[in-house]
Predict the 3D structure of the following.
Amino acid sequence: MSEQLNKLIRQTTELPSMPEVAFEVMRVADMADSSAITVAATLSRDPSLSVRILRLANSAFYGMTREVTSISDAVVVLGMRTVKSLSLVAASFPWLHKALDGKGISPVLLWNHSLTTAYLVRAMATRKQMPDAELPFCIGLLHDIGTVVFAVWKENAFDSLVRRAEAEERPLDEIERAVYGFDHAEVGAELCDVWNLPRVYGSAIRYHHQPSLPETSDPIADLIHVADFMVRERGINEGAFGQIYQLDQEAFERVGLTMDELNEMLDMAISQGADLQSIERKAA
Ligand SMILES: [Fe+2]
Ligand SMILES: [Fe+2]
């Protein structure tokens, strides 16, 4: 299956490309011996990505008291982990905002859904005192990236999947598996492998709809599953459709946060997502 998916991903020529530099920044920022200078030098190789990072860094969201004028400044002021997430945000925008109207998903909705989920996942990881909340943020941002591949590659067939999910009141991922033998979560995981992202990306994305399926559950997949559910409950869907979303109770219990806590974090995530969304759209 993996080989078949891999082939399909590579053969789908209409897919946007991910800037190599963004991946390089993510790798470099994770290396123990890298400094702000190395990260800045890597980022500077892609001027358009650098400009977007600077715009994000100077947005009201980060509340800087002075203007961040250079990439090395941004790395020092914001920290390597934040710059790493910002480069992924800037890099994935063309993907998650791809015009797919008429193919079942709406770019504006998918981008909003992905960003809001990412912020909620980060808030949950911080509350749970996980060592690196930026990692779940990045994975949360990409959790539905497989949907884009599905929509491009299956073109009009994707609409009929969506309609069938609605008519039968079944989750979309279940219909995808019934029709194709795999779902967008698996496609997304495969894509992360094609991009050589750390393994944890693919493994968490693969199970975001079925977090209790693997023998050993993955705490990041659990967080994403619960965040995805909460965000959709507020009507922030991946597209203009409302299939049901089955919350995995065991995953919910493993996460161990109350509905009140989650709703409070979600309010914050919605406003953070809206801020960043408008900055990115202006920059695009
Ligand atoms: Fe999903
Ligand atoms: Fe989702």
Remarks:
- The domain at 98-283 is CATH 1.10.3210.10 (Hypothetical protein af1432).
